[in-house]
Write a structure and sequence with these properties.
Elements (H helix, E strand, L loop, with lengths): L2 H11 L6 E6 L3 E6 L7 H5 L6 E6 L2 E5 L4 H11 L9 H4 L16 H10 L5 H13 L3 H20 L7 H19 L1 H13 L3 H11 L3 H9 L18 H22 L2 H43 L4 H20 L4 H14 L5 H24 L3 H16 L3 H11 L1 H19 L26 H25 L2 H6 L1
Helix pairs in contact: 1-3, 5-18, 6-9, 6-15, 7-8, 9-10, 9-12, 10-12, 12-13, 14-16, 14-19, 16-17, 16-18, 16-19, 16-20, 17-18, 18-19, 19-20
Length: 495
Amino acid sequence: MNYEELVGNILEWVGTRENVTSATNCMTRLRIKVKDDQKIDAEALKQVKGVLGIVQDRKNYIEVVVGPGKSSKCGEVCRKMGIPTADVDQADETGGQGNADAKGSVSGDWRGNKEAVKAMQKENPVRSALKVFGEIFVPLIPGVIASGLCAGVNILIQQLNPGWADNRFLSVVCSMLGLINTSFLTYLTAWTGYRAAERFGGTPILGGMLGMITGLDGINVIAQTIGWWNESSPLDSMLRSGRGGILAVVFGVLIMTKVEKWIRSHIPDALDVVFTPVLTLLACLIPYIFVIMPIFGLISGGICFAVQSVCMSPNVWVRAATGYVSAALFLPMVAMGMHHGLVALYTVQLQQMGYITLYPALCMAGAGQVGAAIAIWIKAKRVKNDRLSQIISGALPAGILGVGEPLIYGVTLPMGRPFITAGLGAGFGGAFVMAMQVAATTWGPSGLLGVFTMTAGPNAGIKSVIYYLIGLVISCGMAFLITGVRIDDREVEAA
């Protein structure tokens, strides 16, 4: 299907592009707001090839049913045409009250609800700083996922085939998987430096060079020369290769970007391309190696020690309590925009230890949303709230796989209390997986998609995967029970 042509035909019969104020999509529909209802030709619109139906249930608004998968493609075409998303008109749907209800409404338009929640969040220095980390590391996520998945699959292959090294095919496969994993982790500081320079407005390749220098063996030579090397325990050296990790790189690139801009503003244009890069690196490298790397080495070590002390505590009850609280509070953190800071924690752990201890527990939050949604779906069927049951049916498959936003912003958060009961149920799964010391090779995939990444830590491999799956079942089951008990039929009927 030519989606540009389909969208063009739809726009023609809703009064042309000039009559459209915004457009977005839900699971199956293109949702359009218009300036003038009188310009919509509903009968002609129904005859458009690819249109399965229309819904007009409020003023200056129409939903065009095109089907699952097709709706997202139509929405993308609208965005490319420069049509704003429906989120910007949220005030119209609240009776002139603006975003007074930050939860949004129970609907398939979970993206609109998400933006309504985000719009209510006031900026502050902490949230802004955490958002910066998110902006730096989000573009790295494809590499993070590819690296972690390959590491997890590699571990499973080797455990399921004890003689893998003697099998030429498996040996080659494992070597290739290992190369993908190593290519990311070995140069993680370089990728971080490149992205940080892009984010701060510097020259990306200079940021990448500073990040790569962080992990080179020449740092060890310098440390030995000046007496900052611990021969008996190299990892405890005041200065060593990788010291400070990604935190040092981000701060170092921030300083370097400021220095680069200052030098560029004071050097003749004819000399800029030659001298600005080298002067910037020379001016920044000394304070970076001798001050920033040692200081942030202490900070990174302290963060890892604090997290390990609770997530991998020898006391199983400490681990369980940490897992419960982490899983129960994770989605409220996401809704408040506070989860960006966790990216830095994941990256620090991944670089220093090769695995992440907190992420498996946080994955349980999505399973809790699934359990709560199933409980609501059963009640919706009983009270004949067909609209709500259809919304949940469309969002559940994605939630089971680990894509939780349609359920969170389309169902549980707008309803309010189910968002809480889902978190309370998820906490039990979080307590279990952390008590069992499940660790991940990466972050990103959750739900069933996260299975192959849960192969690290003390129980590396198959046992860790089994514990993770049990945790998902516990989270889903407990959220189902708590939601079923605490949410009554009247609340579902009114949703």
